Amino acid sequence: YYGGPSNSVTESGWNGNIYVGDPGNWSHPTFGQSDARYTTRNRTSGWSVMDIISTDNEKLNILIGLNGKSIKRDSYKADGSHNKNTGHYYDISPAYGISYAFSPRFTVYANHTEEFVEGEIVSTTSSLNYTNKGETLDPYKTKQTEFGIKMKTGDFLHKLSYFDIKKANGIDILNSDGSYTRGQDGERRHKGIEYTATGTIAEKWNLIGGFMHLNTEQKTSSTATNGKRPNGVPDWTASLGVEYEASDAFSALLRGNYVGTSYVLNEKYKVPSYFTMDLGVKYKTKMNSTPVTLNAICYNVFNKNYWSASGNVLHLGGPRTFMVSAEFEL
After folding, report:
1. pLDDT digits (tens, 9 = 90+) for 189-245
2. S-S: 95 plus which of 101, 113, 117, 192, CB 3.0-4.6 Å?
3. What is the pTM of this model?
4. Residues 30-48: pLDDT tens digits?
5. SS3 breakdown of the chain: % helix, strand, coil, rounded to 5?
6. In angstroms, rounded to a whole number, what is the distance separating the alpha carbons of residues 31 and 24?
7. b/e for 221-253, b at 16 or more Cβ within 10 A?
């Protein structure tokens, strides 16, 4: 596939108010023709081979696979003409796993996967106003190892796993003039445990929940970031939902969501944890002969005020939000 445009233009100097006057009378922003052209193009192609080996009773399953990926990058001039090839990368990555079912209710598994990933496109809209905005950083390889158990007790299905993920570490480099450059340095390590459970607690009542604990760390050449927790990554996340199925057609869901503490600016500022509640209903019906599922949900029912971190950026948490949707089975 081809990557899309990697640059953008912000037009300023025009104003309006959707509540006053006729929006049709506002002056429209104008953009130069060259602004609409892309400055880089990324082309990714690949192949994969995979096989699963199972015993006759299917208690033991072994997965073995390989995938290859090619990433080519070209740069273009402002008038749209080709400038030069800026990189050609190729890698072959393995994937393998094993699972063994001691019984229909208890299974253990382990797997390891690697993937060659296209580098991030430096944001053109970030408040940090990167000196290399629009640039595509070098590709990198991610590695993930996971092992765990799957167990069924009564009407509940449990899954408990441990994982270890390695990936390239993106950093914001502060220049002497106060500007920032987006780059990569070292690796980011995510180690943690995850537990999920789904099942029936009583007639018409279902429970859906789980939690994840992350121990994350940056390993870099800079003392400012080495050993620090990655920006915007919470230590704990959890959710617990109760669903009531009043009938085959109608059900209601109450869900709690917890996001633990995180940090921004390399542990300079601590972002507090927060807890929100969601409430939703689902109704199945028919329109003529077409099955339709109607959904309505209210996120953050109690309109909790909180800060949400994303990388080095803090956002005001989402307010009370209503959403409705319809699914048609055609």
Report:
1. 999 999 999 999 999 999 999 999 999 999 998 888 899 999 999 999 999 999 999
2. 113
3. 0.78
4. 555 444 455 677 788 999 9
5. 0, 60, 35
6. 19
7. eeeebeebbbbbbbbebbbebebebeeeeebeb
